[in-house]
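Illustration: Fis family transcriptional regulator.
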Amino acid sequence: MPKILIIEDEAAIRRVLVKILSEENDTYQVDEAEDGLVGIEKIKKDDYDLILCDIKMPKMDGVEVLEAVKKIKPEIPIVMISGHGDLDTAVNTMRLGAFDYISKPPDLNRLLNTVRNALDRKELVVENKLLKKKVGKNFEMIGESDAISHIKDIIEKVAHTDARVLITGSNGTGKELVAHWLHQKSERVKAPMIEVNCAAIPSELIESELFGHVKGAFTSAVKDRAGKFEAANGGTIFLDEIGDMSLPAQAKVLRALQESRIQRVGSDKDIKVDVRIIAATNKDLKKEIEAGKFREDLYHRLAVILIQVPALNDRREDIPLLIKHFAEKIATEQGTAVKVFSEKAIKMLQEYDWTGNIRELRNVVERLIILGGAEVSETDVSLFASK
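Result:
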């Protein structure tokens, strides 16, 4: 049930607003405050979905109320109520964050439309917050080992900067997870994070994928197309498996890093981009440099901050936490109760040789949940967790 607070010093206006809202929708719960100070106290103690606030009031005017609410509960939309002489001030409140304003005496249709739109906006804001929280949780790093604690410390220090990061580690260790955590904790979180799997794109198409192309640049280029760098403008681009990128593409990435400019394939026009680059690889890039397969100057540009993600075999103490995490996540996905793993089953899994790392462990946990008993036992592990 939407809760609406009316802050208005004129009792007659308050009664009109309450009557209109109550008759329009009996699900609206309408509360009243006779001045700004009372209104602020109510807002601190209760959760409102919308505030209607007069501009000219004793003790604390509407502009002061607006500024205070934006500090304590910025997600609440505020509609200002303006008298004829307050219109200029009402317009200025929009710049301060007010959702809209209505004039006195309130027009019925204008008021109801504004209220509905503001409540829809509040619902959207709440949904976005929940979605961001869910996304952030999906990329949560699980583990308390020294190796994972060290990575978390680096992320906390580096995330808010624009420093380029090179993440290394074997397949399945969670390099993508580290990249997402860096972005989620950065100042660029409101902008997109664009992922590019350099190993999955044919070498002849990688430049077009990264930088875009103009119509006629090659046979299948039937129209202009923006690349991943432009899509990530203002945010982060994650170049996964960068060790598989072709040398010509490496040269263009290097230029983008040096000049913050790109050129679409087939064009000589510079396009300015503002992106943070995070790269990852499962290869030893220093050996690739010696073999002439990777540019040394690009390596030094990318490796401002180096993060080595350990293999699961090197952080076995995290396996009980990971099993619990995966069991809860799989139960949520399947809509079932969370299965418990016996201590002996967990101990057996800790002793396995996890060549596939976290990805392999997750698959094994899911297999055991599907095929194992009510409590996953060491017998289940012996039967179903074999390689």
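Reading the tokens back as a structure: DSSP finds 16 helices and 14 strands in the chain.
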